[in-house]
Amino acid sequence: MNSEESIPSTKVLPKPTISRKEAVNRLWRLGILHWKLDPNQLGIYKQIDSSKHKTHVISASRRMGKTFMLTLMANEKCLQKPNSVVKFVAPEGKMIKRDIRLIMREIYKDCPQDIRPKFNSQDNIYYFNNGSELQLAGSDNGNADSLRGGTSVLCIVDEAGFSNDLDYLIKSILLPTTLTTKGKIILASTPPREPGHEFATIAQDAEHKGTLIKRTVYDNPRITLEDLESIIAEYPGGKDDIQFKREYECVFLVSEKDAVVPEFTQELENEIVREWERPPFYDGYLGMDIGFKDLTAGILAYWDFRNGVLVIEDIFSLHGSSMTTDKLASVIKETEAITWKDPATQTTREPYLRVSDNNLILINDLYRLHGLKVLPTQKDNFEAALNNVRLWLQQKKIIINPRCKDLILHLRNATWNKARTQFSRSTTFGHFDFVAALIYLVRNVNTRRNPYPPGYDFRELHKDDYFFRDNNENKDKSFKEHIK
Fold first, then answer.
1. Contact 118, 126 (CB under 8 A)
2. pTM score
3. Which of 60, 83, 145, 198 could form a disulfide with 131 if both were Cys (CB 3.0 to 4.6 A apart)?
Protein backbone atom coordinates (compact mmCIF):
# COMPACT_ATOMS: atom_id res chain seq x y z
CA MET A 1 0.00 0.00 0.00
CA ASN A 2 1.30 3.42 -0.84
CA SER A 3 2.24 5.30 2.34
CA GLU A 4 0.38 8.33 1.14
CA GLU A 5 -2.79 6.28 0.69
CA SER A 6 -2.63 5.09 4.33
CA ILE A 7 -2.86 8.63 5.68
CA PRO A 8 -6.46 9.82 6.18
CA SER A 9 -7.42 13.00 4.41
CA THR A 10 -7.44 16.11 6.66
CA LYS A 11 -9.56 18.13 4.31
CA VAL A 12 -12.72 19.61 5.92
CA LEU A 13 -15.75 19.15 3.75
CA PRO A 14 -17.82 22.32 3.37
CA LYS A 15 -21.04 22.37 5.41
CA PRO A 16 -24.17 22.31 3.34
CA THR A 17 -25.90 25.67 3.38
CA ILE A 18 -29.58 26.40 3.13
CA SER A 19 -31.36 29.65 2.52
CA ARG A 20 -33.04 31.57 5.32
CA LYS A 21 -36.39 30.80 3.73
CA GLU A 22 -35.70 27.06 3.89
CA ALA A 23 -34.46 27.32 7.49
CA VAL A 24 -37.63 29.17 8.50
CA ASN A 25 -39.71 26.55 6.70
CA ARG A 26 -38.04 23.72 8.62
CA LEU A 27 -38.36 25.49 11.97
CA TRP A 28 -42.09 26.02 11.42
CA ARG A 29 -42.56 22.33 10.62
CA LEU A 30 -40.67 21.41 13.79
CA GLY A 31 -42.86 23.79 15.79
CA ILE A 32 -39.90 25.93 16.84
CA LEU A 33 -40.82 29.62 16.87
CA HIS A 34 -38.97 31.19 19.81
CA TRP A 35 -36.23 32.42 17.45
CA LYS A 36 -38.68 35.24 16.74
CA LEU A 37 -38.30 36.59 20.31
CA ASP A 38 -35.97 39.35 21.44
CA PRO A 39 -33.41 38.55 24.21
CA ASN A 40 -35.71 39.78 26.99
CA GLN A 41 -38.69 37.75 25.76
CA LEU A 42 -36.46 34.73 25.16
CA GLY A 43 -35.21 34.89 28.75
CA ILE A 44 -38.80 34.67 30.02
CA TYR A 45 -39.56 31.85 27.58
CA LYS A 46 -36.57 29.79 28.78
CA GLN A 47 -37.38 30.43 32.45
CA ILE A 48 -40.92 29.10 32.01
CA ASP A 49 -39.84 26.23 29.75
CA SER A 50 -37.27 24.95 32.27
CA SER A 51 -39.42 25.50 35.37
CA LYS A 52 -41.15 22.68 37.24
CA HIS A 53 -43.79 25.04 38.64
CA LYS A 54 -47.32 24.69 37.35
CA THR A 55 -48.33 28.35 37.53
CA HIS A 56 -46.10 31.13 36.23
CA VAL A 57 -46.69 34.80 36.97
CA ILE A 58 -45.22 37.54 34.79
CA SER A 59 -45.32 41.20 35.82
CA ALA A 60 -44.28 43.08 32.70
CA SER A 61 -44.09 46.71 31.69
CA ARG A 62 -45.89 48.23 28.76
CA ARG A 63 -44.36 47.88 25.27
CA MET A 64 -42.44 44.76 26.23
CA GLY A 65 -44.14 42.69 23.51
CA LYS A 66 -45.78 40.51 26.15
CA THR A 67 -48.85 39.57 24.09
CA PHE A 68 -46.69 38.72 21.07
CA MET A 69 -44.55 36.42 23.23
CA LEU A 70 -47.57 34.70 24.81
CA THR A 71 -49.32 34.22 21.47
CA LEU A 72 -46.16 32.78 19.95
CA MET A 73 -45.80 30.33 22.87
CA ALA A 74 -49.40 29.23 22.35
CA ASN A 75 -48.81 28.54 18.65
CA GLU A 76 -45.56 26.72 19.32
CA LYS A 77 -47.27 24.36 21.77
CA CYS A 78 -50.06 23.60 19.28
CA LEU A 79 -47.55 22.80 16.55
CA GLN A 80 -45.35 20.61 18.76
CA LYS A 81 -48.14 18.56 20.32
CA PRO A 82 -50.64 17.17 17.78
CA ASN A 83 -54.28 16.90 18.91
CA SER A 84 -53.66 19.20 21.88
CA VAL A 85 -55.58 22.24 23.16
CA VAL A 86 -54.22 25.59 24.31
CA LYS A 87 -56.57 28.03 26.00
CA PHE A 88 -55.88 31.77 25.70
CA VAL A 89 -57.85 34.37 27.70
CA ALA A 90 -57.87 38.14 27.17
CA PRO A 91 -59.73 40.65 29.40
CA GLU A 92 -62.30 41.46 26.73
CA GLY A 93 -63.70 39.53 23.80
CA LYS A 94 -63.16 42.48 21.46
CA MET A 95 -59.41 42.26 22.13
CA ILE A 96 -59.36 38.97 20.22
CA LYS A 97 -60.34 40.70 16.99
CA ARG A 98 -58.56 43.96 17.70
CA ASP A 99 -55.23 42.74 19.06
CA ILE A 100 -54.76 38.97 19.08
CA ARG A 101 -55.66 38.33 15.43
CA LEU A 102 -53.35 41.14 14.28
CA ILE A 103 -50.49 39.58 16.23
CA MET A 104 -51.35 36.18 14.76
CA ARG A 105 -51.00 37.62 11.25
CA GLU A 106 -47.58 38.98 12.18
CA ILE A 107 -46.49 35.57 13.50
CA TYR A 108 -47.90 33.68 10.49
CA LYS A 109 -46.41 35.91 7.78
CA ASP A 110 -43.59 33.40 7.13
CA CYS A 111 -45.58 30.27 8.03
CA PRO A 112 -45.80 27.64 5.25
CA GLN A 113 -49.27 27.81 3.77
CA ASP A 114 -50.01 24.10 4.18
CA ILE A 115 -49.59 24.16 8.00
CA ARG A 116 -51.11 27.57 8.67
CA PRO A 117 -54.05 27.24 11.11
CA LYS A 118 -57.52 28.37 10.12
CA PHE A 119 -59.53 30.72 12.31
CA ASN A 120 -63.22 30.18 12.99
CA SER A 121 -64.69 33.55 13.99
CA GLN A 122 -67.86 31.97 15.38
CA ASP A 123 -66.18 29.91 18.09
CA ASN A 124 -62.92 31.95 18.27
CA ILE A 125 -60.71 28.92 17.67
CA TYR A 126 -57.61 28.47 15.50
CA TYR A 127 -57.67 24.95 14.04
CA PHE A 128 -54.32 23.34 13.15
CA ASN A 129 -53.81 20.64 10.53
CA ASN A 130 -52.31 18.31 13.17
CA GLY A 131 -55.57 18.33 15.16
CA SER A 132 -54.54 20.94 17.73
CA GLU A 133 -56.75 23.87 18.73
CA LEU A 134 -55.92 27.34 20.07
CA GLN A 135 -59.08 28.42 21.86
CA LEU A 136 -59.57 32.16 22.54
CA ALA A 137 -62.01 33.89 24.88
CA GLY A 138 -62.51 37.15 26.74
CA SER A 139 -63.08 37.08 30.49
CA ASP A 140 -65.87 39.67 30.28
CA ASN A 141 -69.59 38.90 30.38
CA GLY A 142 -69.00 35.28 31.33
CA ASN A 143 -67.35 34.52 27.98
CA ALA A 144 -64.53 32.58 29.61
CA ASP A 145 -67.02 29.85 30.51
CA SER A 146 -66.80 28.80 26.86
CA LEU A 147 -63.36 27.37 27.75
CA ARG A 148 -64.75 25.03 30.41
CA GLY A 149 -64.25 21.31 29.99
CA GLY A 150 -61.85 19.16 28.06
CA THR A 151 -58.10 19.11 28.59
CA SER A 152 -55.34 21.57 27.76
CA VAL A 153 -51.56 21.45 27.62
CA LEU A 154 -51.22 25.19 28.24
CA CYS A 155 -53.45 27.96 29.60
CA ILE A 156 -52.56 31.63 29.15
CA VAL A 157 -54.26 34.65 30.72
CA ASP A 158 -53.05 37.85 29.08
CA GLU A 159 -53.49 41.12 31.05
CA ALA A 160 -54.61 39.05 34.02
CA GLY A 161 -54.66 42.19 36.15
CA PHE A 162 -57.65 43.42 34.15
CA SER A 163 -59.58 40.15 33.89
CA ASN A 164 -62.91 39.74 35.65
CA ASP A 165 -63.13 37.21 38.50
CA LEU A 166 -59.58 35.94 38.01
CA ASP A 167 -59.73 33.50 40.92
CA TYR A 168 -62.81 31.78 39.43
CA LEU A 169 -61.23 31.80 35.96
CA ILE A 170 -58.12 30.02 37.21
CA LYS A 171 -59.55 27.58 39.73
CA SER A 172 -62.90 26.68 38.17
CA ILE A 173 -62.25 26.96 34.43
CA LEU A 174 -58.56 26.58 33.55
CA LEU A 175 -56.93 24.55 36.32
CA PRO A 176 -59.20 21.48 36.00
CA THR A 177 -58.31 21.18 32.30
CA THR A 178 -54.61 20.70 33.12
CA LEU A 179 -54.89 17.99 35.77
CA THR A 180 -54.27 15.01 33.49
CA THR A 181 -51.99 16.76 31.00
CA LYS A 182 -49.71 18.40 33.61
CA GLY A 183 -50.13 21.55 31.57
CA LYS A 184 -48.82 24.90 32.69
CA ILE A 185 -50.73 28.09 33.45
CA ILE A 186 -49.22 31.48 32.59
CA LEU A 187 -50.61 34.71 34.05
CA ALA A 188 -49.14 37.90 32.65
CA SER A 189 -50.00 41.55 33.17
CA THR A 190 -48.90 45.02 34.07
CA PRO A 191 -49.94 45.82 37.65
CA PRO A 192 -53.69 46.51 37.86
CA ARG A 193 -55.10 49.94 38.70
CA GLU A 194 -57.18 48.38 41.49
CA PRO A 195 -54.71 47.37 44.22
CA GLY A 196 -57.15 44.79 45.57
CA HIS A 197 -57.36 42.88 42.28
CA GLU A 198 -56.60 39.15 42.55
CA PHE A 199 -53.58 39.49 40.26
CA ALA A 200 -51.91 41.83 42.76
CA THR A 201 -52.20 39.17 45.46
CA ILE A 202 -51.07 36.39 43.11
CA ALA A 203 -48.05 38.43 41.99
CA GLN A 204 -47.13 39.41 45.55
CA ASP A 205 -47.39 35.80 46.66
CA ALA A 206 -45.20 34.70 43.74
CA GLU A 207 -42.67 37.40 44.62
CA HIS A 208 -42.62 36.18 48.22
CA LYS A 209 -41.92 32.63 46.98
CA GLY A 210 -39.26 33.86 44.56
CA THR A 211 -41.17 32.69 41.47
CA LEU A 212 -42.33 36.04 40.06
CA ILE A 213 -40.92 36.90 36.62
CA LYS A 214 -40.63 40.69 36.58
CA ARG A 215 -39.58 42.79 33.59
CA THR A 216 -39.53 46.59 33.66
CA VAL A 217 -39.06 49.07 30.84
CA TYR A 218 -35.35 49.08 31.65
CA ASP A 219 -35.14 45.40 30.62
CA ASN A 220 -36.60 46.07 27.17
CA PRO A 221 -33.86 45.92 24.50
CA ARG A 222 -36.16 47.61 21.98
CA ILE A 223 -36.49 50.77 24.10
CA THR A 224 -33.70 53.28 23.56
CA LEU A 225 -32.64 55.95 26.04
CA GLU A 226 -34.33 58.51 23.80
CA ASP A 227 -37.54 56.44 23.83
CA LEU A 228 -37.41 56.22 27.62
CA GLU A 229 -36.92 59.95 28.08
CA SER A 230 -39.84 60.57 25.74
CA ILE A 231 -42.07 58.24 27.79
CA ILE A 232 -41.07 59.81 31.11
CA ALA A 233 -41.77 63.29 29.75
CA GLU A 234 -45.43 62.32 29.24
CA TYR A 235 -45.97 61.92 33.00
CA PRO A 236 -46.33 65.06 35.19
CA GLY A 237 -44.36 63.49 38.03
CA GLY A 238 -41.69 62.03 35.77
CA LYS A 239 -40.17 58.79 37.04
CA ASP A 240 -41.86 59.36 40.42
CA ASP A 241 -45.32 59.53 38.87
CA ILE A 242 -47.45 56.72 40.29
CA GLN A 243 -48.79 55.80 36.84
CA PHE A 244 -45.29 55.60 35.36
CA LYS A 245 -44.16 53.40 38.24
CA ARG A 246 -47.13 51.10 37.75
CA GLU A 247 -47.08 50.90 33.94
CA TYR A 248 -43.32 50.83 33.32
CA GLU A 249 -41.60 49.85 36.58
CA CYS A 250 -44.22 47.23 37.52
CA VAL A 251 -44.70 48.65 41.00
CA PHE A 252 -47.91 47.67 42.79
CA LEU A 253 -48.89 51.02 44.28
CA VAL A 254 -51.92 52.64 45.83
CA SER A 255 -52.45 56.30 45.00
CA GLU A 256 -51.75 58.42 48.08
CA LYS A 257 -55.06 60.26 47.69
CA ASP A 258 -56.95 56.95 47.67
CA ALA A 259 -54.93 55.10 50.32
CA VAL A 260 -56.44 54.61 53.77
CA VAL A 261 -52.95 54.40 55.30
CA PRO A 262 -50.62 56.31 52.95
CA GLU A 263 -47.86 56.23 55.57
CA PHE A 264 -47.49 52.47 55.07
CA THR A 265 -44.90 52.80 52.32
CA GLN A 266 -42.50 50.09 51.24
CA GLU A 267 -39.73 51.87 53.14
CA LEU A 268 -41.75 51.91 56.37
CA GLU A 269 -42.84 48.31 55.83
CA ASN A 270 -39.20 47.25 55.55
CA GLU A 271 -38.48 48.87 58.93
CA ILE A 272 -41.43 47.80 61.07
CA VAL A 273 -42.22 44.33 59.69
CA ARG A 274 -39.73 42.25 61.68
CA GLU A 275 -39.22 39.97 64.62
CA TRP A 276 -39.28 41.53 68.11
CA GLU A 277 -38.01 40.05 71.38
CA ARG A 278 -40.88 39.79 73.82
CA PRO A 279 -40.18 41.43 77.21
CA PRO A 280 -40.68 39.51 80.50
CA PHE A 281 -43.71 41.64 81.43
CA TYR A 282 -46.28 42.97 78.99
CA ASP A 283 -49.99 43.59 78.53
CA GLY A 284 -51.55 41.38 75.87
CA TYR A 285 -54.40 42.62 73.65
CA LEU A 286 -56.83 41.11 71.19
CA GLY A 287 -58.53 43.42 68.69
CA MET A 288 -61.33 42.14 66.43
CA ASP A 289 -63.53 43.35 63.61
CA ILE A 290 -66.53 41.01 63.53
CA GLY A 291 -68.11 40.14 60.20
CA PHE A 292 -70.60 37.62 58.91
CA LYS A 293 -70.87 38.82 55.33
CA ASP A 294 -67.36 40.27 55.53
CA LEU A 295 -64.22 38.85 57.08
CA THR A 296 -63.87 38.45 60.84
CA ALA A 297 -60.35 39.68 61.55
CA GLY A 298 -58.46 39.21 64.82
CA ILE A 299 -55.13 40.75 65.87
CA LEU A 300 -53.06 39.55 68.84
CA ALA A 301 -50.59 42.10 70.15
CA TYR A 302 -48.89 43.34 73.31
CA TRP A 303 -47.77 46.73 74.57
CA ASP A 304 -44.02 46.85 75.21
CA PHE A 305 -44.04 49.43 78.01
CA ARG A 306 -40.30 50.05 78.17
CA ASN A 307 -39.88 50.58 74.43
CA GLY A 308 -43.24 52.25 73.88
CA VAL A 309 -44.30 50.07 70.95
CA LEU A 310 -47.29 47.93 70.11
CA VAL A 311 -45.99 44.56 68.89
CA ILE A 312 -48.40 42.57 66.70
CA GLU A 313 -47.55 38.91 67.07
CA ASP A 314 -50.27 37.00 65.24
CA ILE A 315 -53.60 37.25 63.45
CA PHE A 316 -56.56 35.02 62.62
CA SER A 317 -59.57 35.26 60.35
CA LEU A 318 -62.91 33.58 59.70
CA HIS A 319 -64.80 33.76 56.43
CA GLY A 320 -68.51 34.04 55.76
CA SER A 321 -70.49 30.94 56.67
CA SER A 322 -67.65 29.53 58.80
CA MET A 323 -68.20 32.36 61.28
CA THR A 324 -70.21 31.22 64.30
CA THR A 325 -69.88 32.11 67.97
CA ASP A 326 -68.60 28.64 68.83
CA LYS A 327 -66.06 28.69 65.99
CA LEU A 328 -64.85 32.17 66.91
CA ALA A 329 -64.44 31.21 70.58
CA SER A 330 -62.47 28.12 69.57
CA VAL A 331 -60.16 30.12 67.28
CA ILE A 332 -59.59 32.81 69.95
CA LYS A 333 -58.63 30.24 72.60
CA GLU A 334 -56.47 28.25 70.21
CA THR A 335 -54.59 31.31 68.90
CA GLU A 336 -54.09 32.80 72.37
CA ALA A 337 -52.78 29.45 73.63
CA ILE A 338 -50.24 29.29 70.81
CA THR A 339 -49.20 32.93 71.14
CA TRP A 340 -49.18 33.53 74.90
CA LYS A 341 -48.38 30.18 76.44
CA ASP A 342 -45.94 30.53 79.37
CA PRO A 343 -43.03 28.15 78.65
CA ALA A 344 -42.40 27.65 82.38
CA THR A 345 -45.94 26.90 83.56
CA GLN A 346 -47.41 25.75 80.20
CA THR A 347 -50.44 27.90 80.94
CA THR A 348 -51.93 30.55 78.67
CA ARG A 349 -51.50 34.11 79.88
CA GLU A 350 -54.82 35.93 79.93
CA PRO A 351 -54.72 39.11 77.82
CA TYR A 352 -55.10 42.44 79.56
CA LEU A 353 -57.95 43.34 77.21
CA ARG A 354 -60.00 41.91 74.37
CA VAL A 355 -61.87 44.44 72.27
CA SER A 356 -64.12 44.27 69.22
CA ASP A 357 -66.72 46.28 67.36
CA ASN A 358 -70.16 46.58 68.87
CA ASN A 359 -71.85 43.25 68.19
CA LEU A 360 -73.33 43.06 71.70
CA ILE A 361 -75.16 39.75 71.22
CA LEU A 362 -71.98 38.03 70.06
CA ILE A 363 -69.93 39.64 72.85
CA ASN A 364 -72.44 38.46 75.43
CA ASP A 365 -72.43 34.90 74.03
CA LEU A 366 -68.63 34.76 74.04
CA TYR A 367 -68.64 35.49 77.78
CA ARG A 368 -71.80 33.58 78.79
CA LEU A 369 -71.04 30.42 76.80
CA HIS A 370 -67.24 30.43 76.58
CA GLY A 371 -65.93 32.60 79.41
CA LEU A 372 -64.23 35.08 77.05
CA LYS A 373 -64.45 38.68 78.21
CA VAL A 374 -64.61 41.09 75.26
CA LEU A 375 -65.07 44.86 75.52
CA PRO A 376 -67.18 46.63 72.88
CA THR A 377 -65.10 49.50 71.54
CA GLN A 378 -66.17 53.07 71.10
CA LYS A 379 -66.68 53.78 67.41
CA ASP A 380 -67.19 57.54 67.47
CA ASN A 381 -64.60 59.84 65.86
CA PHE A 382 -63.54 57.03 63.52
CA GLU A 383 -61.36 59.33 61.44
CA ALA A 384 -59.51 60.56 64.53
CA ALA A 385 -58.93 56.95 65.59
CA LEU A 386 -57.64 56.10 62.11
CA ASN A 387 -55.34 59.13 62.17
CA ASN A 388 -53.91 57.91 65.47
CA VAL A 389 -53.05 54.57 63.84
CA ARG A 390 -51.38 56.43 60.98
CA LEU A 391 -49.33 58.47 63.47
CA TRP A 392 -48.27 55.36 65.38
CA LEU A 393 -47.14 53.78 62.13
CA GLN A 394 -45.32 56.91 61.04
CA GLN A 395 -43.60 57.11 64.46
CA LYS A 396 -42.76 53.39 64.26
CA LYS A 397 -44.71 52.69 67.43
CA ILE A 398 -46.17 49.58 65.78
CA ILE A 399 -44.08 46.48 65.02
CA ILE A 400 -45.62 43.71 62.90
CA ASN A 401 -44.40 40.12 62.84
CA PRO A 402 -43.75 38.99 59.23
CA ARG A 403 -46.17 36.07 59.62
CA CYS A 404 -49.10 38.53 59.81
CA LYS A 405 -49.33 38.60 56.02
CA ASP A 406 -53.01 39.47 55.66
CA LEU A 407 -52.68 42.48 57.97
CA ILE A 408 -49.67 43.68 55.97
CA LEU A 409 -51.57 43.26 52.69
CA HIS A 410 -54.61 45.11 54.04
CA LEU A 411 -52.47 48.03 55.26
CA ARG A 412 -50.66 48.11 51.94
CA ASN A 413 -53.75 48.01 49.72
CA ALA A 414 -56.66 49.57 51.66
CA THR A 415 -58.38 52.34 49.71
CA TRP A 416 -61.39 54.61 50.17
CA ASN A 417 -64.57 54.33 48.14
CA LYS A 418 -65.30 57.13 45.68
CA ALA A 419 -67.29 59.11 48.26
CA ARG A 420 -64.50 58.57 50.84
CA THR A 421 -67.15 57.55 53.38
CA GLN A 422 -65.85 54.01 54.00
CA PHE A 423 -63.24 51.54 52.86
CA SER A 424 -63.64 50.27 49.31
CA ARG A 425 -64.47 46.64 48.65
CA SER A 426 -61.94 44.36 47.03
CA THR A 427 -62.51 40.99 45.40
CA THR A 428 -59.35 39.78 47.13
CA PHE A 429 -59.17 41.68 50.44
CA GLY A 430 -62.87 42.15 51.11
CA HIS A 431 -63.54 45.25 53.22
CA PHE A 432 -59.94 45.49 54.52
CA ASP A 433 -61.18 44.28 57.90
CA PHE A 434 -57.71 43.94 59.44
CA VAL A 435 -57.31 47.72 59.19
CA ALA A 436 -60.54 48.17 61.15
CA ALA A 437 -59.39 45.62 63.75
CA LEU A 438 -56.12 47.52 64.15
CA ILE A 439 -58.00 50.80 64.65
CA TYR A 440 -60.14 49.26 67.42
CA LEU A 441 -57.05 47.76 69.02
CA VAL A 442 -54.92 50.91 69.03
CA ARG A 443 -57.64 53.16 70.46
CA ASN A 444 -57.96 50.84 73.47
CA VAL A 445 -54.28 50.29 74.33
CA ASN A 446 -53.45 51.62 77.79
CA THR A 447 -50.01 53.07 77.18
CA ARG A 448 -49.72 54.45 80.73
CA ARG A 449 -50.13 51.15 82.58
CA ASN A 450 -46.83 49.73 83.85
CA PRO A 451 -46.92 45.91 83.79
CA TYR A 452 -43.61 45.56 85.67
CA PRO A 453 -43.89 44.70 89.41
CA PRO A 454 -42.57 47.21 91.98
CA GLY A 455 -38.84 46.91 92.50
CA TYR A 456 -38.32 44.91 89.29
CA ASP A 457 -34.70 44.99 88.12
CA PHE A 458 -33.53 46.23 91.57
CA ARG A 459 -31.95 44.29 94.44
CA GLU A 460 -31.99 45.23 98.15
CA LEU A 461 -28.57 45.99 99.74
CA HIS A 462 -29.33 46.25 103.45
CA LYS A 463 -32.34 46.81 105.63
CA ASP A 464 -32.33 50.42 104.54
CA ASP A 465 -34.40 51.48 101.54
CA TYR A 466 -31.43 51.46 99.21
CA PHE A 467 -31.51 49.51 95.99
CA PHE A 468 -29.21 49.15 93.04
CA ARG A 469 -29.75 47.80 89.54
CA ASP A 470 -28.89 44.13 89.31
CA ASN A 471 -26.70 44.61 86.27
CA ASN A 472 -23.45 42.73 85.71
CA GLU A 473 -21.86 45.86 84.30
CA ASN A 474 -22.14 47.52 87.74
CA LYS A 475 -20.56 44.78 89.83
CA ASP A 476 -17.11 46.39 89.95
CA LYS A 477 -18.36 49.91 90.62
CA SER A 478 -18.15 51.52 94.06
CA PHE A 479 -21.01 51.39 96.53
CA LYS A 480 -21.79 55.08 96.09
CA GLU A 481 -22.31 54.62 92.37
CA HIS A 482 -24.98 52.02 93.11
CA ILE A 483 -26.97 54.11 95.59
CA LYS A 484 -30.16 55.50 94.11
1. yes
2. 0.62
3. 83
